[in-house]
Amino acid sequence: MVSVTKKYQVTIPKQIREDLGIKAGDKVVFLKTDDGYKITRAKDIIKEGLEIFKDVDETVKETKEGLGKGFE
After folding, report:
1. What values do phi and psi take at 33, rounded to 5?
2. 69, 64, 18, 70: which is closest to 41 by C-alpha?
3. Burial class for 45, CB neighbours closer than 10 Å (0-12, 13-18, 19+)
């Protein structure tokens, strides 16, 4: 359990920082879930977003190739 300061700050416990790979200066994001909130590093969210776009690019490529074969 952690306390909230007058400035609404909290210290992330060491074990949680280590588990999440959070280092001093990292940006963290709080994501609302059905069960509450999830904390994660901002750069991990960016990586996940890039992976999604990578999948979209591959799907578009496959679709174009498939459409091209249909006209042969």
Report:
1. -125, 175
2. 18
3. middle
